[in-house]
Design goal:
The protein is α/β, with parallel strands linked by helices and about 300 residues long. The chain has 3 domains: about 110 residues, D-Maltodextrin-Binding Protein, domain 2 (3-Layer(aba) Sandwich), CATH 3.40.190; about 80 residues, Periplasmic binding protein-like II (D-Maltodextrin-Binding Protein, domain 2); about 70 residues, Double Stranded RNA Binding Domain (2-Layer Sandwich), CATH 3.30.160.40. It is built from 9 helices and 13 strands. A 5-stranded mixed sheet has the order 2-1-3-10-4, sandwiched between helices. Strands 7-6-8-5-9 form a 5-stranded mixed sheet, with helices on both faces. A 3-stranded antiparallel sheet has the order 11-12-13, sandwiched between helices. Helix 4 links the parallel strand 6 and strand 7. The longest helix has 16 residues. The relative contact order is 0.15.
């Protein structure tokens, strides 16, 4: 029986996510031996820059290179880290059940976001999160923070920040304890990143045997909504520099897409919502409405 090699970053979260996917494959009846290979990426090494300054494939390039040369067979990624344009010969083969899409607000002594004193410092590595925090609390200071989730929590505990913003999904997958979360930020006013909470399993397009195996744990409804979200993001040419957020759901057989576009300082917030059955048309419609609202006011 063929042995499968899965490549992953060496962070606790990446390893936890990879092991959960292996567990899902086992429950689906996959008996192939599966070996885990840890791979350090440029994003892991470059901790002195905010994520917005790194290339879109900062956490994938080295892993994808090893997949192309067949040193590994597949990889598990956080979907929000996966660029819209896939390298030639590679594809997203499966998207399993999605975790919580919300962002979590963690603060020292569990001080609520509305109660933080003016001038308090919030740590985040995301332009989207920074813009949405400033939109709600322009009197606060936002400072970029890098490193694995457990490292960021430690930086909060050491007093480097008054509060930090993390994805709920990462906290849940690491099993760090939901008591760490001061507030769950509501998606209607604090929209998540495109694909947040979802995992993407990537493999070589030509590997039909493996693709068939990975499809065993694919969730078609989640695949559809995150595909819609990624089509929405694709409509923005400067998406690496803009504060773009959004999420989709399915209700009564229709896709409902929520999208947001913000200026970097949070002073201009644009929201749109629409529903339909065609992912591409829906994504284009919501994006076009956002562009019409205030193209000239965007600050990069």
């Amino acid at each position: 029986m063929r042995e499968l090699i899965v490549g992953t970053r060496g962070s606790k979260l990446a390893l936890m996510q990879t092991n959960k996917i292996i567990e899902r494959l086992r429950k689906a009846g996959v008996n192939h031996p599966i070996q885990i290979k840890e791979i350090e990426t440029r994003g892991d090494r470059t901790l002195n820059l905010p994520l917005s300054k790194l290339a879109g494939d900062a956490f994938l390039q080295e892993i994808e290179t090893q997949m192309i040369v067949q040193s590994i067979d597949f990889a598990v990624h956080s979907l929000k880290d996966v660029p819209l344009q896939m390298p030639h010969g590679l594809m997203i083969a499966s998207i399993p059940e999605r975790e919580d899409i919300r962002d979590a607000y963690l603060a020292k002594n569990h001080v609520k976001l509305n109660d933080l004193p003016t001038g308090s410092v919030i740590g985040t590595s995301s332009l989207r999160r920074s813009a949405q925090i400033l939109a709600k609390r322009p009197d606060l200071k936002v400072k970029w923070i890098r490193g694995p989730i457990d490292s960021r929590i430690e930086q909060l505990n050491q007093g480097h920040f008054d509060a930090i913003i993390l994805a709920v999904a990462g906290i849940k997958r690491l099993g760090l304890g939901l008591d760490l979360i001061t507030e769950y930020l509501p998606v209607d006013t604090f929209m998540p990143a495109i694909g947040q909470g979802a995992l993407a399993i990537e493999c070589r397009t030509e590997d039909r045997e493996l693709r068939k195996i990975l499809r065993l744990i694919n969730d078609e409804s989640i695949e559809l909504v995150v595909h819609t979200e990624r089509l929405f993001l694709k409509q923005f040419e400067d998406r690496e520099k803009e504060a773009i957020a959004g999420y989709a759901t399915i209700e009564a057989g229709e896709i409902i897409l929520h999208g947001a576009r913000l200026t970097a300082d949070g002073k201009t917030v644009m929201n749109q919502k629409a529903k339909g059955k065609d992912s591409k048309k829906l994504a284009e419609s919501v994006a076009n409405q956002l562009k019409k609202q205030s193209v000239a006011k965007l600050v990069y």
